[in-house]
Write a structure and sequence with these properties.
Keywords: Aminoacyl-tRNA synthetase, ATP-binding, Ligase, Metal-binding, Nucleotide-binding, Protein biosynthesis, Zinc. With about 260 residues, the chain is an alpha/beta fold. The protein contains eight helices and nine strands.
C-alpha cells in the first residue's frame, strides 16, 4: 500500500517482561527482511500521554474507580457496571474503569467480513490496573492515534479487544484504523503458536523457509523457481502477488480456529 510500517515494543507490563526480548524481536525481523520505518517506539516512554488521556476521560465522566477483584468482575452480569460505578471511591488501591456506554457491536473486517461481537463488548473495562500499570486497551489506542496508524493486521484472538478499542476511538472522536484479523496458526496440540504456550522460537537461519511457510498459511504458495531464492526475492514476490482476498479463499484451512 506504499505506506510506512512501524515497530512498537509494547512494554507496559514490567513484571512479565523478559530481559532482551526486544532485541530478539528486532533480530528476527531483520533476519526475515522485515525492516521497519522510523524510530522504534517503546510504550514505557508514553506514560504521560496515557495519563493525559485518563485525565480527560475522568473529567468527562467516562471513568470510575473500582476495587473489585478479577473474580468479582468476571462474575458481574454482562453489560452491567459493578457496584463501584455508583460509589465515590478514592483512586488508591483501585483500578480505573471505563463506563462503556457507547459499545461497538460489529465491524467490517477485511479478512473476516462483517463480525458481530457478543455481549462481552458491552462490559466496562479497565484502563489502569490497581498496581498503577496502564492497560493494553488504552495504551494501544493512544499509540495508534499518535502514530497516525491507518491499518492494523493482527491475530483473530484479539477480536474481543477490538470492540473495546473502538469504543475508545469513538470517545476520543478519532477515526479508527482498518482492521485485518488473521486466522491463528495452531500447533499439533491445538494451541496457538505463542510464547504464552511455550512455542519454540523462530530459527533465523531458516528465514526463507519461514517466510514461505507463512505465505502459504496466508493463502499464497511460493512457486518452485523461488526454492533457492534470497529473502528479498521472496518478499518482492509476496508484495506483488499476495492479496487479503487469499485469506478468504483459503479459509477452509482454518475451520474452528477463529473465536470471535
Amino acid at each position: 500500500m506504499n505506506g510506512k510500517w512501524l515497530l512498537r515494543i509494547e512494554d507496559i507490563d514490567p513484571p512479565r517482561e523478559q530481559a532482551g526480548a526486544d532485541e530478539l524481536i528486532k533480530d528476527a525481523l531483520i533476519a526475515h527482511g522485515l525492516l521497519w520505518d522510523e524510530d522504534v517506539i517503546y510504550q514505557h516512554n508514553s506514560h504521560e500521554r496515557y495519563e493525559q488521556a485518563l485525565t480527560w476521560l475522568r473529567a468527562n465522566g467516562h471513568c470510575y474507580f473500582c476495587q473489585c477483584t478479577r473474580k468479582q468482575r468476571l462474575a458481574n452480569p454482562k453489560g452491567q457496571s459493578c457496584a463501584c460505578a455508583q460509589l465515590a471511591l478514592n483512586p488508591q488501591g483501585c483500578a480505573t474503569v471505563l463506563r462503556n456506554t457507547d459499545a461497538v457491536h460489529e465491524i467490517d473486517d477485511l479478512a473476516l467480513g462483517r463480525v458481530s461481537f457478543d455481549e462481552q463488548c458491552k462490559d466496562d473495562f479497565i484502563l489502569r490496573r490497581k498496581d498503577g500499570l496502564y492497560a493494553y486497551q488504552l495504551a494501544v489506542v493512544i499509540d495508534d492515534i499518535d502514530s497516525g496508524v491507518t491499518e492494523v493486521v493482527r491475530g483473530a484472538d484479539i477480536l474481543p479487544a477490538t470492540a473495546y478499542q473502538l469504543a475508545l476511538y469513538n470517545l476520543f472522536k478519532q477515526p479508527a484504523p482498518v482492521y485485518v484479523h488473521l486466522p491463528l496458526v495452531m500447533g499439533d496440540n491445538g494451541q496457538k503458536l505463542s510464547k504464552q504456550n511455550h512455542a519454540p522460537a523462530l530459527n533465523n537461519e531458516h528465514a526463507t523457509d519461514n517466510l514461505c511457510a507463512a505465505l502459504e498459511t496466508l493463502g499464497l504458495r511460493v512457486p518452485s523457481y523461488l526454492n533457492n531464492a534470497l529473502v528479498p526475492d521472496i518478499l518482492d514476490f509476496a508484495v506483488h502477488n499476495w492479496s487479503v482476498a487469499l485469506i478468504a479463499d483459503n479459509g477452509h484451512a482454518f475451520d474452528n480456529r477463529i473465536d470471535a
